[in-house]
Design goal:
By secondary structure, the protein is of the alpha+beta class. The protein is about 20% helix and about 25% strand. The protein has one domain. It is flat, with a radius of gyration of 27 Å.
Length: about 300
Amino acid sequence: MPVGAAAGTAQYSGKFVPEIWSSQMLIKFYETVCMAAISNTKYAGEIKNVGDKVIIRTVPTVTISDYVKNSDIDFEYLESANVELLIDKAKNFGFLSDVIDVHQSDLPIIEKFAQDASEQMKISIETGVFADIYADAATYNQGATAGYIDRDINLGVSGTPLAVTSADVLSLIVESMQCLDDYSVFQMDRWGVGPNWFFTKILLSELKDASLAGDGTSILRNGRQGRIADCTLYKSVLLTSVTDGGGEKAFYPLFGQKEALSFASQMTRVKPIEPSMRHQQGMKGLNVYGYKVLKGEALVAPYIYKAA
């Protein structure tokens, strides 16, 4: 709205004073995605179309037996079932603009729209993955009796989610790592994903010892999540949340090791388009993908809510 003019005087706005359109588009903020950081993506290059199937070979377990002198060795023929990673999901996008708008625009609008499509694709896929995989955590990596060895860790259950405060947020991380330890999961490439408030609790906690963050400077230096208990932490607003029966908004954060989840995605068709019957330009794209929890023992799924 222009600056007002006194009654009886000329108002040049919209006549001699033109409207000026910014040469920059308003910055758009996107939800953070972390699927490539927390999953095994080495099979992504092997897929091309919806319905493809990647056969993953597994290493068999060799039986160890006691040795008695002068006795025969009991040889075994090793076999191990293959695991199938189905590329059975797909998402697409498409948009058009009149060629006059494209050519007269002072911004590369097709390029800008394509960039947005790419970001929205990642967000849509990751949201669906998080909503699906938490249920595939091993039996003793979730619930009120978690911990494969002692089964005395409470990670929360439906109806009674685990309350998380700044005083006990570190305990949840460490106990989730203990669940992985009980299954002898590799120490390297361990990760955790939590909602925004989870990291607020960390920053409000007594976690000021730099050694707990795995480096020489306190994690409070700039809000960086860093590493805690050999676990690299990621923040995400895409995690699944529900309204629990008690009225709390409960979340499913995840902890694990990269070999727990295999994820393969391929943008198989990204193509500029110009409809034959119209003067328009645009783009369309098709992304095929699949995912599978290969090792449930390497995935921990607490069920928590934000407590005061």
